[in-house]
Write a structure and sequence with these properties.
- The complex is a heterodimer of chains A (453) and B (171).
- Chain A has 453 residues and is α+β, with helices and mostly antiparallel strands.
- Helices cover 36% and strands 27% of the residues of chain A.
- Chain A is built from 15 helices and 22 strands.
- In chain A, strand 10 (221-233) and strand 11 (236-242) form a beta hairpin.
- In chain A, helix 4 runs antiparallel to helix 5, helix 7 packs across helix 8 (174-192) and helix 12 (396-409) packs antiparallel against helix 13 (419-427).
- Helices cover 11% and strands 29% of the residues of chain B.
- Classes of the chains: A alpha+beta (453), B mainly beta (171).
- The interface between A and B is medium-sized, with 15 and 12 residues.
């Protein structure tokens, strides 16, 4: 096992990684910005190295600073968490060249999945269902028009280098195409220095279903079931649950098998997630693969009884997974609610400030992953995630009742949070019935607007 | 008691059993705004009575009660210890800190004399070292004129952001 792992991340995921390392007897070093000097992760880590100022380009995204921090602290491996450098192929390659183990997949797989056109083609070739669309980058507007006519509107334009909901445009009619094409192309060029676009069929009333994978260097690739992440606002997830209440056993098996086959076809190693879009007709399509640990991983950990960070560490060390697909037992139901410092009534504006009072939920069948403590200051540089509340139970209904109870206990004073919104969402009939789709949050907000009239 | 953390002390609950949480919260909030209004660093003692509730705030400030506005970087401003805090140490040294993460060098190159030695006088803006990050050489300059009293990092050490490199006693 590694002697020292440097974590170049912050917030709850840095705390989460440090915890698994401690249990494995690994020395931990936190690479942090000046804004996170006084943070829970900094206190829990055995050692700290300041990477730079609050701005991410000079600290958490600063490849040389992270590499020097590894050298300074004697780290033999680095865990990037999620966001920041976690899906940066250049960083993974630089680690490899510096003799530091990157705890994640090979740089070539990060690069492959980061190029959405290449990923789509590779997965199509492996037999993973992809949306009808372009095989390569769009040559020009005429090419886009021809394809859109062939596939049928609505279509979606996406940047090859995009992801995380950035650099995309939904085109509902031929009249909208020219503007959407021009704007998205220039946005993509500005955001990613890569203005290649591709086009796919747009699925309305879809659901977001993803499959968690673990793969080792010895040829074992297995799935840990799926998560339903269809409760989203502005392409960001708010609630995730496993198993998905709307999948029949046959479709579940198809998606899990497709994900395993896709990962196996490229020789993928580490934890990873295949994201699918499932249409109202039950047809499922590959959207993208996340080559890192995800925010919502605890939902799977609870159902599978496995520590995914521990397995990322063990796999990175070259260990062989000691279980097969048949040994994996997924039991019960788990639901996660993300608690963010944001104002749902002001278009989800993120808020920074001081947490003056804090009471975290607890009790049976509740797990809370957080880095927040009374008096903590939420810095203005990063995302607004404060805590993840994960409830579990033998059935979905039981898990939802436990989550409701837990959110009622949660008190966070000093800045706006989405706790009340999450509690309303839990009471929503469509959510409760389990057949909700990606438009659920929009509908809920529209209801509020009507109620206020 | 710390310098920048006002200590708002609540009532002793055994002697004041009648105070509700809400009252306590509002009192603490009130004290907090008073502290903000008065401004940090100038409170030495503040006592408030809210009927049964008594709140005391005390500031153990390292800085003397100055007539000029509080400096943003106290280390750069010479303190006047004779006035208010007679036991305070003499003017604190100024630390030159690493502007980025990298390898610290004390000289222009191998075999070259170090930019500065302990005991040497430096001018403001004078080069005191180099930090190399990815083959890029970044000059490190003295922030103020004075005498180098300590060199805190060895030649070739990897330094973190804002790590203290040398100490200068300002003129």
């Amino acid at each position: 096992m590694f002697d020292t792992v440097l974590i170049c991340n912050r917030g709850e995921i840095a705390v989460r990684i440090i915890r698994s390392c401690k249990e494995l007897g690994i020395r931990t070093v936190l690479g942090h910005s000046t804004a996170d000097r006084e943070s829970m992760a900094a206190w829990l880590a055995d050692d700290t190295v300041c990477l730079g100022p609050g701005k991410v380009s000079r600290s958490y995204n600063n490849v040389p600073a992270v590499l020097y921090a590894c050298a300074k602290s004697g780290a033999d491996a680095v865990h990037p968490g999620y966001g920041f450098l976690s899906e940066d192929a250049t960083f993974a390659r630089a680690c490899e060249q510096s003799g530091i183990k990157f705890i994640g997949p090979a740089a070539e797989h990060i690069a492959l999945m980061g190029d959405k056109i290449a990923a789509r083609n590779a997965m199509g070739a492996a037999g993973v269902p992809v949306l009808p669309g372009s095989d390569g980058p769009l040559a020009d507007l005429g090419h886009a028009r021809g394809l859109a006519e062939q596939i049928g509107y609505p279509v979606i334009l996406k940047a090859a280098a995009g992801g995380g909901g950035r650099g995309i445009a939904i085109v509902r009619s031929p009249a909208e195409l020219e503007d959407a094409y021009t704007v998205t192309k220039s946005t993509a060029g500005a955001l990613f220095s890569d203005d290649r676009l591709y086009l796919e069929k747009f699925v309305t009333d879809g659901r977001h279903i993803e499959v968690q994978l673990l793969a080792d260097e010895h040829g074992t690739v297995l799935h840990l079931g799926e998560r339903n992440c269809s409760v989203q606002r502005r392409q960001q997830k708010l609630v995730e649950e496993s198993p998905s209440p709307c999948l029949d056993p046959l479709l579940r098996e198809q998606l899990c098998d497709a994900a395993v086959a896709g990962a196996r076809s490229i020789g993928y190693v580490s934890a990873g997630t295949f994201e699918f879009l499932v249409g109202p007709d039950g047809a499922a399509y590959f959207i993208e693969m996340n080559t890192r640990i995800q925010v919502e991983h605890p939902v799977t950990e609870v159902c599978a009884g496995l520590d995914l960070i521990e397995w990322m560490l063990r796999i990175a060390c070259g260990e062989k997974l000691p279980f097969t697909q048949d040994d994996i037992r997924l039991s019960g139901h788990a639901v996660e609610a993300r608690i963010n410092a944001e104002d749902a009534t002001r278009d989800w504006a993120g808020c920074s400030g001081r947490v003056s009072g804090l009471v975290l939920p607890g009790g049976p069948r509740i797990r809370v992953d957080t880095h927040v403590f009374p008096g903590y200051r939420v810095p203005p540089f990063y995302d607004s995630l404060l805590a993840k509340v994960i409830a579990f139970g033998p059935t979905r209904e039981a898990a939802l009742r436990t989550l409701e109870r837990a959110l009622a206990e949660f008190r966070c004073d000093g800045l706006p949070t989405n706790i009340d919104f999450q509690r309303r969402l839990l009471r929503n009939e469509e959510f409760r019935a389990g057949h909700y789709r990606l438009d659920l949050v929009q509908k809920l907000l529209a209801e509020t607007a009507v109620a206020e009239l | 008691m710390s310098d920048n953390q006002p200590d708002a002390t609540g009532p002793n609950s055994p002697t004041n059993p009648s105070i509700s949480d809400a009252e306590l919260d509002s009192a603490i909030e009130g004290v907090r705004s008073v502290v903000e209004i008065v401004g940090q660093g100038s409170i030495s003692r503040l006592k408030l009575d809210y009927g049964a509730l008594q709140v005391e705030v005390e500031y153990a400030s390292e800085l003397p009660a100055a007539t000029s506005p509080q400096p943003p970087q106290p280390v750069l401003i010479p303190a006047s210890p004779a006035e208010a805090v007679p036991e305070a140490p003499e003017r604190p040294p100024v630390h030159v800190s690493a502007p980025l993460v990298g390898v610290f060098y004390r000289a222009q190159g191998p075999g070259k004399p170090p930019f500065v030695e302990s005991g040497q006088r430096v001018a403001a803006g004078e080069q005191i070292g180099i930090i190399e990050a990815m083959k890029m050489m970044n000059s490190v300059l003295a922030e103020c004129a004075g005498t180098v009293v300590d060199i805190l990092v060895d030649d070739g050490d990897v330094v973190e952001y804002e790590q203290h490199l040398i100490a200068i006693e300002p003129n």
